[in-house]
Amino acid sequence: MELTLLGTGAPSGLPRPDCPCAACATAVATEARAATSLLVDETLLLDLTPGAAFAAARSGHSLAGVRQVLLSHPHDGPPVEVPAGVPQPGRVPDGRELALLTGHRVRAVAMDAPGTGYAVTGPDGQRLLYLPPGGAPAGLEESAVEPYDMVLADVVRRPDALARLRAVGAVGPTTDVVAVHVDHDVPPGAELRRRLAAAGARAVSDGTTLAVGAYEDVPDVPRRTLVLGGARSGKSVEAERRLEAFPEVLYVATGGTRSGDTEWGSRVAAHRERRPGSWRTAETCDLVPLLKDDGAPLLIDCLSLWLTDAMDAVGAWDDVEWAGGGERELRARVRELTEAVRATRRTVVAVSNEVGSGIVPATASGRRYRDELGRLNTAFAIECEQVLLVVAGQALVLRG
């Protein structure tokens, strides 16, 4: 089954008309995207958009052979002119299947937002799933399905759609996930590709023709990632974003509840509100057993507070205890942690503070903590496939 993406952008396109934002300003040349429209085997058109006939011609195809046009979502604005010879667009009721004379079968998939998803099976048995903008499948928990060969979805705005599909096996290791309905939420180019790669997805330019079921060398999601950054840099948001397309994440909070500290409680509540409802939370600094066990991906937030707990346990704040064995014991704890990271089979995203570029602490204990955190970050980073530094909400890739 062959698929041509006549457009890959949001319904209003990218750049948006009259939008002055930075993402729209840089969405030029191959980064400019018309509204998403898919031509399947030159016989099925999913979403008729303005200029679809010209887009098909530019990509070396024609709409002359189209026998069915299906819409996935309500179209705002003036009516779209139907090209001569092309059937009138329609929609398939949720759960119903449409059989075409060409041998294609199209099943309508219910969404949790206005719109309809379409599962298309080609004459050769290959299967693709196309989701509308801003939509995720509803009711998938009731029945698992075989992995699709290709999924086209609004990955940036609805990463939880991928999480739902992965949870029931509809997206597997070999599924080619392609981002469509791309809007100005993320700067185009390298940043968009980086965000999508973290979700196990990719983007292609308008006019690209893809063979459904063909192997694509999409970068693997890093199994171990360290996210560094200063206070309020956006490092926790970046870490959470890297796993929101995956189900059953275990969020490991190393800071505890701090009973009676209302300001800390507000911080913890803000973090919880950001997380998907399917994530579980464990409040512990005992990381080694979690790393040794098999299971769901771990998000550790953060190593800085783990170090505070470890330094408390070895008496690191007292010079006599530090010199009398506390330093040696802390080194052993850090070594045990990093060895567990090296041996773990789980996907791990860990957050830590980068404090080495700030003001030199005024106290000996403050300087000791700064130095030990720098050593911990270095040792942990050595064991990670990817290391990021977040500055002002912008992620800089240091490794991977």
Largest sheet: 7 strands, mixed
What's the rounded overall pLDDT mean? Answer: 91
- Number of discrete helical segments: 10
Class derived from helix and strand content:
alpha/beta
Low-confidence stretches: none
Q: What distance separates the N and C termini?
A: 34 Å
Strands in their spatial order, largest beta sheet: 14-13-15-16-12-17-18
Strand content: 15-25%
Taken in chain order, the helices and strands follow as EHEEHEEEEEEHEHEEHEHEHEHHEHEE
Give the % helix.
25-40%
Rg, Cα atoms, Å: 25 Å
> Per the principal axes of the C-alpha atoms, what is the gross shape?
elongated
Q: What's the number of extended β-strand segments?
A: 18
What would you say this structure looks like, in words?
The protein is of the alpha/beta class. Helix content is 28%, strand content 20%. The protein is built from 10 helices and 18 strands. The strands form 3 sheets. Strands 14-13-15-16-12-17-18 form a 7-stranded mixed β-sheet, with helices on both faces. Strands 5-6-7-8-9-10 form a 6-stranded mixed β-sheet, with no helix packed on it. Strands 4-3-2-1-11 form a 5-stranded mixed β-sheet. It is elongated. The model has no long low-confidence stretch (mean pLDDT 91).
